[in-house]
Amino acid sequence: MKAMILAAGKGTRVRPLTYELPKPMIPILGKPVMEYLVEHLVRYGVCDIMVNVSYLHKKIEDYFGEGQRFGARIGYSFEGYLNNSGNVIPQPIGSAGGMKKIQEFGGFFDETTLVICGDALIDLDIQSALFEHRRKGAMVSIVTKEVPMERVSDYGIVVADPDGRVLSFQEKPSQKEALSNLASVGIYIMEPEALALIPKDKIFDIGSDLFPLLVEKKVPFFAQKRFFNWIDIGNVTDFWSVLQSVLKGEVAQMHMPGTQIRDGVWAGLNTRIDWEGTVIEGPVYIGSGVHIEAGARIVGPTWIGHGSHVCADAEITRSVLFEYTRVAAGAKISETVVCNQYSTSRDGSMRHISEHEDSEWNDSRDRRVRPRKEIVQVIKKMMESEPL
Predict the structure, then answer these.
(1) CB-CB contact of 26 with 14 (8 Å)
(2) How many C-beta atoms lie closer than 10 Å to residue 312's C-beta?
(3) Where would I find the beta strands (DSSP E) of 62-181?
(4) I need a labelling partner for 293 at 20 to 30 A (CA). Which of 11, 81, 325, 378 fits?
């Protein structure tokens, strides 16, 4: 069995996290989501893995290389081009179109292939799913998971007969209109014959184009109802919620990195905590090279990325700070994700640092001492000269 990881999208719903990172590289406990997927595949003996890439593709390629350190063989298919200015222009061609490009180029899909989106954490029993796929003689199987009826409007819903044969799809139907509560989770098992149905040199999506075609042609196309953990990072609110659950130990087989230095407090290498007047209520992870000044208050679940600096009397509550974040003296950050020059609240409201009247954070690598308002003015000038 081989695998295909879909990793070409821009991840617009997860901005600002994806301004500088492709979505599969978003870190959970300091490790990219896609790394968990690769490890899971290798655990089941699936070691030949193709990845379609486009947006910020080098971030993925440089991190995973050819897969040796993960016990895998990883290849890449880039979707885009280099323009006359020498800039890389991402140009995804659809999930199915990306597979067709790979097949036309080198014939990679010559046996049963597990296709999986690169932006979710799963613990699917791959062996059991493959057994059911073959037992039913399926050309394509779509893995589904039951969701509460009040959540069907958040998902693509699969309608199947009692034997599991797929009859139709509903894209985020209302609860009243929903004919099923089986949600597609972006995991598919395909035989090579399915690739022949995908047109060449055309933007073609698995869900919206290929699957309706399979139903129309009445090929053996089945849904599998499975019970497993599936943690999707659809937007920043999901990311915040996932981190909260993971830090509280609610997700199986995901454990806090670093060394436990106090009850509920873990730290990476070479951290510096001035404990006088400092209060830390776990679960809290403090990354390597972090400095926490005296009088700070940190309430978990909170993740503080490596190289960060929490100044005196700052308060951080149930938040996620990406690496190299300096929280200003006396600042209060609550239920927020801070990523570079952006913050996103629990409800998904995003703000740039320049929108704050008095800057609450900046880059900890900037060693210049400035009043907080002056930092904002500098950022504004940078944005005017180098727009995003």
Answers:
(1) yes
(2) 15
(3) 73-78, 80-82, 88-90, 113-117, 120-122, 140-146, 156-160, 166-171
(4) 378
Find, among 151, 160, 149, the residue nearest to 224 by Cα: 160
Task: Give the whole-angstrom CA distance, residue 191 versus residue 134.
Answer: 10
- Structural tokens at position 359: 């800057």
DSSP 8-state code for residue 301: S
Is the whole model's pTM more than 0.90, yes or no? no
If you search the block for the tokens 């900037």, which residue do you land on?
366
The first and second tokens of residue 121, run together, are 């954490």
88: exposed, middle or buried (Cβ count in 10 Å: 0-12, 13-18, 19+):
middle
CA distance 295 to 318: 18
Beta 265-267 vs 284-286: how paired, if at all?
parallel
- Specify burial of residue 131 (Cβ count, 10 A radius: 0-12, 13-18, 19+): exposed
| Half-sphere CA count of 85, side-chain side, radius 13 A | 3
210-259 pLDDT, tens digit each = 988 998 999 999 999 888 888 877 778 888 888 888 888 877 777 888 89
191: tokens are 């035989």
120-122 and 221-225 beta bridge pairing? unpaired
Alpha-carbon distances of 338 from 55, 300, 334, 378, 387, rounded to whole Å: 22, 15, 10, 19, 20
Nearest-angstrom CA–CA distance, 16 and 1:
36
In the numeric block, which tokens belong to residue 247?
A: 């830090």
E strand or H helix at 282 = none
In what helix (H) or strand (E) does residue 236 lie, and over which residues does it extend?
helix 236-247
Cα dihedral sign for 104, 51, 17, 81? negative
